[in-house]
Amino acid sequence: MSTLITNIGELVTNAPVAGDDAVPAGPGRFAAIADAALVVEDGRVAWTGPAARVPAADHKVDCGGRAVLPGFVDSHAHLVFDGERSAEFAARMAGTPYRAGGIRSTVAATRKASDGRLRANAFRLAAEMLRQGTTTLECKSGYGLTVDDERRSVTVAAGITREVTFLGAHVVPPEFEADPAAYVDLVCGPMLAACAPHARWIDVFCERGAFGADEARAVLAAGRAAGLMARVHANQLGPGPGVLVAVEAGAASADHCTYLTAADVDALAAGATVATLLPGVEFSTRQPYPDARRLLDAGVTVAIATDCNPGSCFTSSMSLCIALAVREMRLTTQEAVWAATAGGARALRRADVGHLGVGARADLVLLDAPSHAYPAYRPGVPLVAAVWRAGELAAGAVPAA
Ligand SMILES: [Zn+2]
Description:
By secondary structure, the chain is of the alpha/beta class. 34% of the residues lie in helices and 23% in strands. It contains 13 helices and 16 strands. Strands 1, 2, 3, 4, 5, 14, 15 and 16 form an 8-stranded mixed β-sheet that branches. The chain has an 8-stranded parallel β-sheet with strand order 6-7-8-9-10-11-12-13. β7, α4 and β8 form a beta-alpha-beta unit. α3 packs parallel to α4 and α11 packs across α12. The structure holds zinc ion. The site of zinc ion has 5 residues, from loops.
C-alpha cells in the first residue's frame, strides 16, 4: 500500500547525493524541495519530487502548502527516573550553581520507585517527545547505579527505543564515595554484564565531580569489549579531557562540548566523532553556550539534542533546542534543522533516519507553517501538526484529501 503526501510547501529531505564521497553513508547535507510531494510505501520513502510530477498512489494526503521535515532525532535523553527537581531549578535560577552531585537526589528517588512507575514515567516522556515530532530517541540509564537498578533502567529504556545507552558511570553513588575505584570496577564488571544485553551504547560522564580520563577510558574499553559502541558526556561544566577521550575511543559522539580548547576542536575535526550540543542545558543552568560556529567552521559534524532529564534540562522539545541553537549559538535555520535531524542520526550512526531520501524510514513531521525556519522563527509555539513514524500516522491529524 502506498500513500502520496503532496502539496508540501517545503520538503526538507537531507537526502544523500549519489557520488558525494565527502558525505558518509546516511543523511546528506541540508537539502529541500519547494512545492514537493513524497510517496510512502511499506514504511519507507519510495519517491520524492515536485508536486507537479507525482506518481499514482493508493492514498493521498494534502498538506495545504505546509512544510514537512524529517522526524527529529533526539540523540541524548535520560528518561528512566523518578522524582523531580523543580526546587533545585528554582534555587539555581536564584543563584545556586549547578553541580554533578544533584544527580544523586534522582538516584535516591529512582531506586525507591516501582518498575511500573519507572516504566510509566519513561513512556509518558517518550509520548510527549513523539507529539513534538521526535521519531527517534536515545535513552540512557544512570539513575540506578546498582547492578539491579541499572539492569531494570536499561530494560525500561529498551521498551521505548532501540537506542539504549548504559550509563552506570553517571556519577559515583554515595555508598562508594570512599572508594570510587571500586565503583568503576563494579560498572566495568557485573553491572556491564547485566546491562550490555539490553543496550547498544556505553556512556560515561567524564567531568570533575564525576569520572576522570583514566576511569572514562576504562569504562569505554569495557563497554566496547562487551559489544557496545561509545559516546561520552564531555566538557559540560568546564574544560577537561572528555572530548579527547571520546575521539581517542572512536566514540560516535561527544555530548555537551560547552567548554572546548583549540586542541578539542582540532581533534573533533580530524576524527569521526560528532559534537552533540545540548543548548537546553545552557538555557536551564544559565551557563555560557558552546561555540558552535567554531565547530561548524572547523568542519565538525554537529548534532543538537534535548538532554531531557530532571536536573540540568527538563525540556523534551527539539523545536526549542533548534530555536536556542539559532538564537544563542548562531546556527543558521538550515544548520539547526539539519543538526536536529541528520546530525542526530550521525550521532547514533543511523543511516535510515534523519533524512527523507528514497529508502529512508518514513519518519515525517508536518509543520503548521510554510518553512523549516519556523521552529526558530516562532519559538515556543506548538507547530507540529502531524507526525508519521515508519509511514504510520503516530500523532496529530491530517485532512482527508
Ligand atoms: Zn546527559
